[in-house]
Write a structure and sequence with these properties.
The protein is of the alpha+beta class. Among the domains are: 196 residues, Rossmann fold, CATH 3.40.50; 101 residues; 148 residues, no CATH class. Helices cover 60% and strands 12% of the residues. The longest helix has 74 residues.
Length: 795
């Protein structure tokens, strides 16, 4: 079986350059304060096993491994290597995948890591408990890899959407055909496009053409062949239509009188303006004055932009306004002149454009060159448009008016019209051609547009039937998926409750239920029992019980995964227990090590008591774990390993004999505090209330000591240690709690007396066989004992 051996990380999250995380055969327990890099090792482990980091690759904007995966003080990309072992051979895996020769077992493990849920972070635990039903379903779907259940529904919904798109397309096509039929048959809204209406309109058009009416629309193609025969003599009518168009275009040419009228208005307006300008002394630059005012106001100018002299903006504005008022008449004449010129140029351009279009159609219809007089007129108009695009004097306007009169547009139009009329006389009856052509186009619309419309309607009916059937299949698939998921959730809930009862026996709570709701397509309600009443666990459970519940559900999911795919035997818990008390911590530790004895287990925690519980349980179960304690973290060093032994183990080791007296007192004081927390809880010793729930040494000791003295057998066994601790515990307050100059005067003998008393007391109250502290025995008043009664004291 593939096992984790060593995790090496550099420049990764909070890890600058190691230290390496060594795994025991059964796993590793890592303890350290918050913010010391514990989760950085978990992030690195997840990244190398799955290719992603769940705490960063969340989809949240601005959060990703690419942005935050690198250590802030590192210049290079993260480097991660995980050494795996099958017992006889090591294998290396980096964030880029396996290195070295391929191994089928390593590949299977990595593949399973990408499919299964093996890692639980506290934020994930709380998010699951506090999630809305729809979000909870998504979380469970991710845990259980429910993609296979969703794949069929997704494909069916995509097929339904595709079907709806085709229906919409066919309806659009049908609408296009309806519009074409209305235009050809002359059927206005709100009349329907149906067989009866179309047949009536078609027969009306056939009647006007002198053709026999139809009994049904299916005969339209036969009747169209008959119309084609009657249209044969009119083979040149297409040419006739082109010539007829020339006649229309000539009739729409602007007359010369219209040009003369706008030219005269332009001439008069120009004369008035020039006469008024002749009265000026100098020049009147209206635009310069108006734009200058805007500049002064917009930029709050106090200096002239031309001469750079100092100006008074108020006086300048008053002077400009006076000059504009003084020349108001000239301004009005100039406005009239510009408008008249624009109308004149527009009239010239309109005649020019009409003649250019006529020339193009002339060569298409008559297949002869455009007459010279008309060509000369086009050339003249082009020159006049270009010239009068800018303002001209009266003399130029007069000369151009005379030139336009000499060109005589009216005469040109009459000449063109005469040639077109002569050509039209060579064609047969245009009226007969028009009614036959109308009949033909109508019959064509029936044979083409009507058939397409009916085809579209048939396809719409087919698609709507298909979509209805698909929707029914979607409903059945959704129902089947909910039932299948519910069966999975029932199995998980059963396992989760069994785990929960192991941690909380006899508390009359539990029975978690994960229910796929009928509402929506993907929602899960979470309920639990609290003294025979079912409801949301957040409404009745303590924070510790909620933590424990979430953990048990995850453990059930992990067991579910492993039972279906054993290629991955790994459980990772990243600081998931925050609010669980001592008794339940120990029970949780026993549960995890017992139920997942076939797994390699990785646990991080900031709680030293939980750390000690895990060590004790692992030792009793003969499980081989490695233990690491993070002593501190800084930006320049990253995590720094501390001693991995517990305080008790260290105090009883050879290392402590040569340690500084102050160091021994500090660890002994910490050990005493941990012991008293367990004893006060297990022996029901009342401790003064702490608002923050943090009970330190002094209130614990002063509450425990009187209670201990009342138990005669216990005091007889532990009295000397209790008295010595009472005598010397002040040393801990002076040295252990406040590491200062007092430590320099602490003697080795004083340190040894206090340390030995605390270590011996620990032997009196903690049973290494039961791996627990003595407790008050329910129903036996005054009896304190471990579970197996190896330690037993009676008041």
């Amino acid at each position: 079986m593939i096992r984790l051996r060593t995790l090496k990380a550099k420049g990764c999250r909070g890890i600058l350059d190691g230290p390496d995380l060594e795994f025991g055969k059964d796993g590793v327990v890592l303890v350290g304060d918050n913010g010391t890099g514990k989760s950085s090792y978990i992030d690195a482990l997840e990244k190398v096993l799955t290719g992603k980091c769940g705490s960063l690759d969340t989809g949240d904007q601005g959060l990703s491994w690419a942005r935050q995966g690198k250590h802030v003080a590192s210049k290079s990309a993260p480097q991660i290597e995980l050494v795996l072992s099958d017992g006889s051979k090591d294998f290396s895996v980096t964030q880029d995948g396996p290195s070295g020769p391929a191994n089928i077992h390593v590949g299977a493990m990595l593949s399973a890591a990408r499919r299964q849920s093996f890692l639980l972070r506290r934020r994930t635990l709380l998010a699951f408990i506090n999630a809305k039903p729809a979000d909870r379903y998504k979380a469970v779907a991710d845990f259980l890899q429910l993609e296979r259940f969703n794949a069929l529904e997704s494909k069916l919904r995509a097929l339904s959407t595709q079907c709806q798109g085709q229906i919409t397309g066919q309806k659009t096509a049908k609408q296009v055909e309806e519009i074409a039929l209305r235009q050809q048959l002359g059927i206005s809204l709100p009349a329907l496009i149906d067989t009866e209406t179309c047949l009536a309109q078609l027969n009306k058009i056939l009647g006007k053409a002198g053709l026999a009416i139809l009994d049904d629309l299916e005969s339209a193609s036969i009747r169209m062949e008959q119309v084609e025969v009657q249209l044969a003599p009119f083979s040149k009518m297409e040419e006739f239509q082109k010539v007829q168009l020339l006649k229309t275009l000539i009739s729409e040419l602007p007359p010369l009188d219209q040009l003369r009228e706008v030219e005269s208005a332009y001439h008069v307006a120009r004369k008035k303006t020039q006469d008024e300008e002749a009265k000026l002394r100098g020049n009147f630059y209206q635009q310069v004055l108006e734009e200058g005012v805007k500049w002064i106001q917009a930029d709050s100018l106090e200096t002239c932009p031309l001469c750079e002299s100092t100006i008074d903006p108020t006086k300048i504005l008053q002077r400009v306004e006076a000059r504009l008022n003084e020349h108001a008449t000239l301004t009005a004449f100039r406005d009239d002149q510009d408008l008249a010129r624009a109308k004149f140029v527009s009239a010239l351009r309109a005649l020019y454009d009409a003649l250019v279009l006529l020339r193009r159609k002339w060569t298409e219809g008559l297949r002869t060159n455009f007459p010279d007089a008309a060509e000369s007129l086009i050339e003249l108009l082009d020159q006049l448009v270009a010239r009068h695009s800018t303002l001209q004097g009266r003399e130029v306007i007069e000369d151009d008016s005379e030139a336009l009169s000499e060109a005589n547009p009216n005469s040109v139009a009459r000449g063109l019209s005469a040639q077109v009329e002569a050509k039209l006389q060579t064609y047969p009856s245009s009226e007969r051609y028009e009614v036959l052509t109308k009949a033909k186009s109508t019959l064509h619309a029936i044979t083409i547009n009507w058939n397409r419309l009916n085809g579209a309607q048939t396809e719409i009916s087919r698609l709507e039937t298909a979509r209805s059937q698909i929707q029914r299949i979607v409903e059945l698939a959704e129902k089947a998926r909910k039932e299948a998921v519910q069966q999975l959730l029932d199995q998980i809930a059963t396992h989760a409750d069994r785990y929960f009862q192991n941690v909380h026996p006899g508390e009359n709570i539990g029975s978690p239920a994960l229910k796929v709701t009928d509402r929506g397509t993907a929602s899960i309600d979470l309920t639990c029992v609290f003294h025979k009443k079912s409801g949301d666990p957040r409404g009745c459970y303590s924070e510790g019980h909620v933590d424990s519940l979430g953990l048990c559900i995850f453990l059930a999911i992990r067991r579910f995964h492993h039972s279906h795919d054993s290629d991955l035997s790994l459980l990772v818990l990243d600081d998931v227990l925050h609010s669980v008390d001592g008794e339940h911590r120990m029970a949780t530790a026993k549960l995890i090590l017992k139920e997942f004895s076939d797994h390699q287990i990785v646990i991080t925690t900031h709680d030293p008591l939980w750390f000690e519980n895990l060590k004790a349980v692992a030792s009793a179960a003969a499980r081989t774990f490695s233990y690491h304690r993070i002593a501190g973290w800084s930006l320049t060093t990253g995590p720094v390993w501390g001693d991995h032994l517990s305080d008790y183990e260290w105090l009883t080791s050879d290392e402590s004999l040569t340690a500084m007296p102050a160091d021994r007192v500090i660890k002994a004081g910490r050990l005493l505090e941990q012991m008293l927390q367990h004893l006060c809880d297990g022996l029901s010793v009342p401790v003064p209330f702490s608002l923050r729930g943090r009970y330190t040494l002094d209130p614990l000791w002063t509450s425990f000591l009187p209670k201990a003295k009342k138990n005669k057998e216990f005091y007889a066994a532990a009295g000397p240690q209790l008295d010595k601790i009472e005598e010397l515990r002040g040393l801990r307050n002076l040295v252990g709690a406040h590491y200062n100059e007092w430590a320099n005067y602490l003697t080795a003998n004083e340190s040894k007396e206090l340390t030995d008393a605390i270590v011996t007391l620990r032997d009196r109250v903690y049973c290494p066989k039961c791996n627990e502290f003595i407790k008050r025995i329910a129903g036996l008043e005054g009896v304190w004992s471990c579970k197996g009664e190896h330690l037993r004291f009676k008041a």
